[in-house]
Write a structure and sequence with these properties.
The chain is α/β, with parallel strands linked by helices. It has two domains: about 1-140 and about 325-359, Quinone Oxidoreductase, Chain A, domain 1, CATH 3.90.180.10; about 155-290, 3-Layer(aba) Sandwich (Rossmann fold), CATH 3.40.50. Helices cover about 30% and strands about 30% of the residues. The chain has eight helices and 18 strands. The strands form three sheets. Strands 3, 5, 6, 7, 8, 9, 10, 17 and 18 form a nine-stranded mixed beta sheet that branches. A six-stranded parallel beta sheet has the order 13-12-11-14-15-16, sandwiched between helices. The mean pLDDT is about 90.
Amino acid sequence: MKSVTLLTDRSNIRNLKLEERDLAAEPTAGQALLKLERFALTANNISYASAGESMGYWNFFPAEPGWGKIPVWGIAEVVQSKAEGLEVGERVYGFFPMSSHLVVQPAGINPHSFVDGVKRRADLPPIYNQYTRLAAEPGYDASMDDQRVIFQPLFATAFLLDDFFGEHDFFDAERVIIGSASSKTAISLAYLLADRTAPRPRILGLTSAGNRGFVSSLDYYDEVASYNQVPELATEISSVFIDMAGNPGVVKALHSRLGDGLEYSCAVGVSHWEETTGDISVGGLSKFFFAPSQAEKRHKQWGGAELGKRIMSQWYRFSLASKNWMSLRRGDLATQGLDLYQALIEGRVPPSEALVITL
């Protein structure tokens, strides 16, 4: 049996190589072999690569020196199992390398999920180590598998952002400004904010001039501005800034324009990865929002089942609605994976499109 892996040069994430090799030995007692069926490629994965060193994303799935395996969210099938309670043929959703296969050591197996108990992942955030058993999920809809791998991780981040700011009454701000408003995490967040019961803050999307038309066509933003219009933003409206882009120039310009009227500023992603300097907080101007921390807090307060239920009920409605504005581009990992990754990292994937890699 052959495995296929896309490896990334950790010193220059534009450089990739495709590796094909025979699979190592079969799983040992307590292990299972998963074969990836599909995964999404989004700006989220570029953020993982950009922050691979600083945030430890290269540690999830180690590779040869100098190279890394970018984590992705996908669906896989259990093709071999020596783990009691996990059967061959079962399908699971979770965190994977950009590779056709992954050996896991299932622990804490219950009817709905398990975690990879392998020692090297023990100190990593729990949200990344859990795998959902799809057949046991209430109301599971296989026709939404593509939307799941595209949106579920992004929507979960958006849900936790919405929850965090709601918990703090939006720091008494009248306006929420979302940077990189065309990104799928930003759109998810705008959807949740727009769905809030009035009164709610106004939602302003910041985007490139080229994407302004698309962002304006969505129903979720109250107003849209391009980055070069930051010096023109109204200053009499108190605001919070949620930045998905990680562009220091934009962050500094916005802080300079709004001054004391900016009640809170947080950094979430780096969709403008080439503009980043390695400091996502831009010298402390922004606070880094680490979604797993908010997830762990709510997990303790609400329980894992309730947290999942709240996220999934809204995710499903949003994902159905996304079919009105999003199209899919599919490609096989071995033959098209490199090209699709390059298209994404070079900004050649329009915001109205999503990439799904199949194996």
